[in-house]
Amino acid sequence: MKSKKITALLTAAVLTVSLLAGCSSGSGGGSSAGNSEYAGTKISFLNSKGEIQSGLEEMAEAFEKGTGIVVDIMACGAGEVPYTKITSAYNSGTAPTMAMLDTTDIIALAEEYALDLSDAEWIGEAEAQITRVNDKVYSFPFCVEGRGLIYNKTAIEDTLGTNFDPSSINSYDALKSLLEQLRAAGMENPVVISKEDWSLGAHQLGFIYDAYDGTTKGADDIMAQLKGGLDPLEYARFNEFVDTLDLLLEYNINGKNPLGALYEQDPIFLVDGDAAIWANGVWAWPNLTDAGAESSDEYGFLPFVLGNDTSDFANNGIQAAASKQVMIDKVQASEQEQNAAKEFLNWIVYNETGQQMLVETCAVIPACGNNKNEPLDPLGKDIQQKMADGKAFSSSFIAPSDHWSVMGAAMQKYIAKESSREELAQSLSGYWKAQ
User: Phi and psi of 68, rounded to 5°?
Assistant: First the structure.
């Protein structure tokens, strides 16, 4: 597989730019065949998930053929901040009918701009992934994303010469033993830690919030405690997180120059078998395919283990929650446009074509439990199976928008050994006290 590296480096670089920047046919569909009563209505949809732009455009075409409703999929351009784009659109009187945004943005905008969807039928299909603002539902959970430690089962088994059971990694000691065995068998540095601030400050450090009790409310509670003066060094999850991070850093293939690591190279280490574990999320599958991975390959998720309690939910499942929400405009859209937008969401949830295209064309994990289509990639399949088996927790911490950049910088100093655990804790404490 070494011959794939040059090509993968070039093609994966393009994908990195995009990274930085439901359910069976049933009574709720309303648009399974023929024209809708809103045929001819034109509505717009702001997409903040750039890698699925073409997929959404295909979905809009299929929806139009069945209903006569035209959906213009508006891309959030490279470098554009979705929150800034949507607020600017409201200020200029050009707000989209629908907007796909991060949960943090939905919560900030909902009561002023979003249509109340509390009576939507699809709420019952996605109860665990629903976001409420003052007990009202203002957004549709478009997709679920999860994160943990991506593993390459083939690389592990080829190195150790034995079968690997992912469920056996359910504690700090179990992970430590695996890494020790891999190094002893010839895989000197089996872990990949990426240097990006959005990865370190949100996806990794975020476990101290999401693993508080596995709920978004719990994440809110611990953030409030930190804001109120709780010393991170007195918070068990913080110390467990740093312990595991230290363990991973000990085996980091980027260890000699952790801040000089290239994100485009990181998936190649995993695919080529130079490493066996990459701390990342389901969104990394396109990077892996560009590095040579195939859907038939054996990849999946280990928990980002925290401590040695083998009964701990955080050690037996991974974080998986609705990462993108769709709201319908209540300020500038007409009632007819709002109803057409509702029909589009119902089509995604209940129409067989909408269900299939969401999963296969857009390659996302549906939040609606009645969508039985399986993701085509192994990471998506693994998360969906873990959700079905009750081995996932749905917390999605909602921090201020600068958290990932400020704390990402502090995390970068830490992985470069330019700061201590105590200094990282001080940075975290200072961040929350300033809020």
Answer: 85, 0
CA 170 to chain centre: 22
Token pair for 148: 């943990």
> CA angle, 241 as apex, 195 and 149 as ends, to 5°?
60
Coil, helix or strand at residue 19: helix
Q: Which of 161, 271, 221 is nearest to 432 (CA)?
A: 221
Among 151, 107, 125, which residue's Cα sits nearest to residue 372? 125
CA distance 403 to 400: 6
What pTM was estimated for this model as a whole?
Answer: 0.84
Core vs surface per residue 327-344: b (16+ CB within 10 A) or e: bbbbeebeeebbbbbbbb
pLDDT single digits (tens) 183-197: 999 999 999 999 999
Which pair of structure tokens corresponds to residue 64? 């139009």
Residues belonging to the chain: 435
- Confidence label for 34 from pLDDT (cuts 50, 70 and 90): low
Q: Which residues contact 147 (CB under 8 A, 6 or more apart)?
A: 203, 280, 281, 282, 301, 304, 318, 319
| pLDDT tens digits for range 357-396 | 999 999 899 999 999 999 999 999 999 999 989 999 999 9
Half-sphere exposure of 182 (CA within 13 A, CB side): 30
DSSP of 335-381, one letter per residue? HHHHHHHHHHHHHHHH-HHHHHIIIIIS--B-S-TT--PPPSSHHHH
CA distance linking residue 282 with residue 319, whole number of Å: 11
- Three-state SS at 142: strand
- Largest distance between two CA atoms of the chain: 67
On the CB side of 79, how many CA atoms lie within 13 Å of its CA? 0
> Residue 363 and residue 52: Cα distance in Å, rounded?
8
User: Nearest CA to 205 among 214, 216, 215, 197?
Assistant: 197
Q: What per-residue string of b and e applies to 362-371 under the rule 16 or more CB within 10 Å gives b? A: bbbbbbbbbb
